[in-house]
Amino acid sequence: MGDSLPRSPLAPSSFPQLPVIKGLRLCAGAAGVKYQGRNDVMLAVMDPGTTVAGTFTRSKTRSAPVRDCQAKLGGDSSAGAAILVNSGNSNAFTGHYGQTSVAEICAAVADITGLPEARIFTASTGVIGEPLPHDRIIAQIKDLNDGLDATALEAAAEAIMTTDTFAKGASAEVTIGGETVSIAGIAKGSGMIAPDMATMLVYIFTDAQLPQAALQAELSRLCDRSFNCITVDSDTSTSDSLMLCATGASGVDVSDSAEFSQALEAVMLDLSHQVVRDGEGATKFVEIQITGAVSDAEAKTHGLSIANSPLVKTAIAGEDPNWGRVVMAIGKSGADADRDLLSISFGDVLVAEKGWVSPNYREEDGAAQMTRDEITIKVDLGLGDGTCTVWTCDLTHQYITINADYRS
Amino acid sequence: MGDSLPRSPLAPSSFPQLPVIKGLRLCAGAAGVKYQGRNDVMLAVMDPGTTVAGTFTRSKTRSAPVRDCQAKLGGDSSAGAAILVNSGNSNAFTGHYGQTSVAEICAAVADITGLPEARIFTASTGVIGEPLPHDRIIAQIKDLNDGLDATALEAAAEAIMTTDTFAKGASAEVTIGGETVSIAGIAKGSGMIAPDMATMLVYIFTDAQLPQAALQAELSRLCDRSFNCITVDSDTSTSDSLMLCATGASGVDVSDSAEFSQALEAVMLDLSHQVVRDGEGATKFVEIQITGAVSDAEAKTHGLSIANSPLVKTAIAGEDPNWGRVVMAIGKSGADADRDLLSISFGDVLVAEKGWVSPNYREEDGAAQMTRDEITIKVDLGLGDGTCTVWTCDLTHQYITINADYRS
Where in the chain is the site Involved in the stabilization of negative charge on the oxyanion by the formation of the oxyanion hole (chains A, B) (predicted)? Predict the structure, then answer.
């Protein structure tokens, strides 16, 4: 179905030019797992010394590949690493057969690449509950390994798409001590997107040097303010995986480098926003800025309550400046709020304050904000210093069309 | 907008015949608050000695009438009581003006009915954030009082509708010690319906005798297993109010009467299910039975996670037996689950067990279940004795149509 959906109106004009990440080679191929006539599998192989960090869905029904990746994180990095991803089948809720599929794929990749099985990470995305035809994937591994290339990130991003309408990539380069460090990432995700877990499939690579513990800490910290602050439909995938791999091939140790952290955060924010921009049926990209909450955690609770509200999201789809629904979503969130201290703005238009509509608010000013492709909703609780920004999209007929028909 | 929506395909064939509740008289009228050409206000007046219980939204941005009702519960019941409800405007997030509106309406009702202001309860339902034109309501009170009648429950149910496509009523009669006790209730609600608060506007009357504390305890207990177990769209209203009034006019004390409790529960379940059946855009009524959870609370968490999942609800709309999305919703709920102990059935069709699709499951059997108007999803966690049943509807194009246009 992914192939037939129109490209999101919120998509970037084209896939970005990504830098080569030293120590990384990739290849995409067509295994015919479910989709025909397109690539549906990608292999990434990284040099010895590559450290690997990851965050994953906290779903109690997470998939076999997620469980396998979690178990392998933090292992010996001396031998390098590989990642194999397929689309079209998530290998989730497939019982012991699912674990067998993962084991067989890992064994085959290890055999052909010469890497230890403990350094082979896999992911699967697509329909839940159907057996993964892993033989079709295994049959492609030799060709994938033979075709490995340093410039195949875009092909890899395309191979992992499901209901995505565009391939997602982002990059940054920073100079540290006169040396250039590169970061490049790819992502897939469009529906079954909710925060507070890892999210979707995201692979970020850098040629920086960073020990695994530091790499993991940095990934977790930045994930909380990027991927964990987006939502399309409040539904959390069984397969969400975000991996960050540092090949070290630049020779630059980025421990405690603020520049590197900033660059990595920029890449993660860019990719996470692209996922929202490709939200199923999305026509509006919505940033929700919460300030004045009792704590950052309560700010996030309010932000996600607004971002996940079907009534707020349908109002945005209808270009209706329906701030009453924002009031409703704040009221139901469970976090602290005081009606008379709240203020709400759409973009720069102050809509409500002191427990009621702002005296200078004109409906046409709010309506003008809602006609934009990118909408900002600002809420100040007036209670404390807690802040959070979350991102979401609108809820449209196209979401229903996609999800009443598509078996994911 | 309510007038132009087609009647829900899940609606009962007609409004039920309701018994007369001794000690209760009602009248509906047209104040022109927002809607034209229909009734939009109702007054109920009850005899001296009537005890009044209520549960209300826990929203932090709850409306002025909700706050006023909460403050008045538990007061002296010797003088009787009155309830005045308008539709078209919720008087929520209307600042101090909202409180003034409530006070002026209560003063006018007290003046004309001769009841003390402390026994006048009001509710408003409709658009949030616009000033309530309370003068239009006050102008109708004398006519409403003059027209009070014991048989006007259906007219009252119609007057409080907003996006509802049918008026909702339910009743029961029980014989206790040779005497008949009657219960009759009305409700409105269609969108912005979520549990764990009170819910919507619901008024239940009985001529039973029950002290206020016992009445309140009974209402709260039964609310937790009826109205607090339904959801249309996970969004919680700022105006939710459920009131139960016992006029005592039957002369029958129902303290500790199991028959009365069962009859009251039946009325509350019936009304709560009618709200789901009138869920905005609903074409399927869905009962979700959770068993085998660690606790009843965890069973409810799982049930609501399934019931509120946009992906589950759109799959049901598409008549797709997509049990993978049920697995997803269980996994994300936060409550305990073990993939390999779970079993899932659609109606009597066992779909998944032991961590995977059931070996005897045939897709056509699941698909046949999904073509029904009323669908049962059964989930057994296999962990403990916790159970809960929740009710919801599907998520359709019509929900988007209603909510991308309607200002509620």
Answer: 125-126
